[in-house]
Amino acid sequence: EAGVTQFPSHSVIEKGQTVTLRCDPISGHDNLYWYRRVMGKEIKFLLHFVKESKQDESGMPNNRFLAERTGGTYSTLKVQPAELEDSGVYFCASSQESRYSEQFFGPGTRLTVL
Amino acid sequence: RKEVEQDPGPFNVPEGATVAFNCTYSNSASQSFFWYRQDCRKEPKLLMSVYSSGNEDGRFTAQLNRASQYISLLIRDSKLSDSATYLCVVTLGVNDYKLSFGAGTTVTVRA
After folding, report:
1. What is the pLDDT, as a whole number, of residue B84?
2. What is the DSSP letter of A1?
3. What is the 3-state secondary structure (H, E, C) of A33-50?
4. Is the CB of B23 inside 8 Å of chain A's CB atoms?
5. Are A103 and B99 inside 8 Å of each other by CB?
């Protein structure tokens, strides 16, 4: 069974540009999460989808970040315009329906904003 | 105050040694507890859940102390392959899905 996949694996952009990250969850997983790790800090929750609905977006840092999950399958996270402090590793995770279900993480997208 | 705090280490131990470390969590309402393992530049992977009564999985033993709000992980008979960063993770509420991570404890097992 394929795991969570993320694209791209790396992205280097300049401040002010736009970047879109994509996550494909494990097939059949209704829950999809975005997390990020900025340099020297712990991994932080960004938001949680249940199917196509945003269940919890309390971790989104500001309105430069927009997450979507149209059709309840893959998700995108767009940063517009990117700032230097957005650099870090963005992880996507997915899980089955129970809140006790294990969250499986993707390999992450390493974003560098210059 | 951070939600989850860990000793960053590193813990450098020889093969075959026992290594143990803790993490503390700040919210007494925390419901679920986990240890995740993260290899260098890889994604976190669930190592084990932590139950109130404590639990073992092979060479790994996890304990939960709700009164003192800490979780521990003990690794017996360390292997080179145990070298990794161990992340302490909690969920904060009854209906909470989101994971709160500690910054990780680095363990290096040497030959």
Report:
1. 97
2. -
3. EEEEECCCCCCEEEEEEE
4. no
5. yes
Q: Which of A35, A41, A99 sits opposite B95 (nearest CB)?
A: A99
In Å, how far are A36, A37, B63, B103 from A40, measured between CA atoms? 12, 8, 27, 8
Nearest residue to A32 (alpha-carbon basis) of A11, A8, A56: A56
Ramachandran angles phi, psi of A72, nearest 5°: 70, 20
For tokens 């302490």, the residue is B88
Long-range contacts of A61-64 (CB under 8 A, 24+ apart): none
Taking only the tens of pLDDT, chain A with its 114 residues reads: 689 999 999 999 999 999 999 999 999 999 999 999 998 899 999 999 999 999 999 999 999 999 999 888 999 999 999 999 999 999 999 998 766 778 999 999 999 999
Residue type, A69: R
Q: How many residues appear in chain A?
A: 114
Residues 6+ apart with CB under 8 A from A109: A6, A7, A8, A9, A10, A11, A21, A89, A90
Binned average pLDDT, 10 residues per bin, chain B of 111 residues: 90 97 93 94 94 92 95 97 97 81 96 95
Q: Give which of A101, A7, A52 is closest to B99, Cα–Cα.
A: A101
DSSP A98: S
Q: Does B97 touch chain A (CB under 8 A)?
A: yes
